[in-house]
């Protein structure tokens, strides 16, 4: 292993950090095979540095059959040969650390990929074997076990059970998969599973990784006692219990696992950090975020806020208070690899059901792109001024809209082809980034891209925005530099504008203020020096759909 350097400094670096999510297959292609890779990331370290980030989070780069974009992991302690090598990983960490950027990697503990050696061994070993006990195998119902063990649906639809062919060639047992059939769920009651993940966490921590994003962190422990099997058609929060006794999600026992992980994280200096992707009731988030647990838990509430001052204020208040009570800091998220890009979402009316909208309208979208981008920029500025950490998703710094034009036959998302009648897909936010105005794959690589890029991509490329005053890229750079220079304690207070409920205005302890205009008329700015605006001021006033930062 190469020598690695850890960044010195404060163990609380994550509390108000800006973390940039890289979807490795779609960031930059260093060897011209159409797939983004570690070489590509290494070549873009100067770019990442220019954004002024505290950390990057890498979505899975592990060996995978790509049934779910890499969230079907076949080997947790290696790099997919199409993406690079462990040596390149070490170089990447080293280069990022040199410029002060920390590295978070994705851990996918609920399920492995079906080519994982343990799952392959389970198939070969047959019913009742210790190999099968690492996953969730059950006999089917009916005279010949031909009926699935329960009416549990998969998140990607339809069923969560798949029947296997036994070593003797006959149809046999069924295994549970909450996601695609290529993603068999682990049995977390099995100590070997527990030990193996601790080994994985040590493996990456020893290589200098600073933290972890824990995929579907709330699903690991299920109630399967005495032959019980969950039966459920929807993974909606509306059907999930919020008392730790749901039979499928967010059971209290899951925190025993994270308490053990916390001990491992704390063996390192600085302690490794973790953030839970846990789609649980808000009152259940603090347990994941506790200092004896993962330490932080995503709050995705802003995804549902739309362009609505009242909702945004309520969400900010709730989450800042809740995070503080659990000793954590909250997270702000507007986009990631699972959702329609927010520049597009903000170009649609408040209250739009985005999944439905996508399924019905993607070939005739009618998005108000300018409005969407204005609001996206304003909202990003608002969130970057709040206490807490902010997660950015690659391409949002270019103001990228969703790539809606992907033909069905080129889709990769299992959500699309496992449930064709629904017409859902997450591929439109996973299209490789445009680096240049022209050229093969707009500078993503030298030889095409694994998902098709739309024609308009060149106009919003890094090249088209670099150094251009007022571009979204330059706005992000400016904001990040300011944020760094304005670093302050995790306090804030609202300034009420009784006569203008569509104004959201708050102050940080050092006089840093943020004001956003959700209304339809321009508003006067508070006294002070204007540090940055998401839109040019009009006769000294803040126009609609805009945010300004002020130093008072
Ligand atoms: C998480 C990931 C998503 C993936 C799923 C299954 O929600 O963000 O991309 O499909 O888990 O691993
Ligand atoms: Ca490549």
Terminal CA distance? 50 Å
The helicity comes to 10-25%
Mean pLDDT: 96
The radius of gyration is: 23 Å
Bound molecules: alpha-D-glucopyranose, calcium ion
What is the beta-strand fraction?
5-15%
Largest sheet: 8 strands, parallel
Decide which structural class fits the backbone: alpha/beta
What is the total domain count?
3
Annotated CATH topology of the largest domain? TIM Barrel
Strand arrangement within the widest β-sheet reads 9-8-7-3-2-1-11-10
CATH class of the largest domain: Alpha Beta
Name given to the CATH homologous superfamily of the largest domain: Glycosidases
Q: State the helix count.
A: 14
Shape: globular
**What is the N-to-C succession of helices and strands?**
EHHEHEHEEEHEHEHEHEHHHEHHHEEEEE
Describe the protein.
By secondary structure, the chain is α/β, with parallel strands linked by helices. It folds into 3 domains: 13-111 and 191-474, TIM Barrel, CATH 3.20.20.80; 117-176, Alpha-Beta Complex (Oligo-1,6-glucosidase, domain 2), CATH 3.90.400.10; 491-551, Immunoglobulin-like (Sandwich), CATH 2.60.40.1180. It is 25% helix and 13% strand. It is built from 14 helices and 16 strands. The chain has helices spanning 38-43, 45-51, 86-98, 117-125, 191-206, 254-266, 285-289, 309-325, 342-345, 354-361, 369-385, 414-417, 462-465, 472-485, and strands spanning 18-22, 55-58, 102-107, 137-138, 161-165, 171-176, 211-214, 273-276, 295-297, 331-333, 389-393, 493-494, 503-507, 512-517, 529-533, 546-551. The strands form 3 sheets. Strands 9-8-7-3-2-1-11-10 form an 8-stranded parallel beta sheet. A 5-stranded antiparallel beta sheet has the order 12-13-14-16-15, with helices on one face. Strand 12 and strand 13 (503-507) form a beta hairpin. Helix 5 runs parallel beside helix 6 and helix 11 runs parallel beside helix 14. The protein is globular and about 80 Å long. The model has no long low-confidence stretch (mean pLDDT 96). Bound molecules: alpha-D-glucopyranose and calcium ion. The site of calcium ion has 6 residues, from loops.
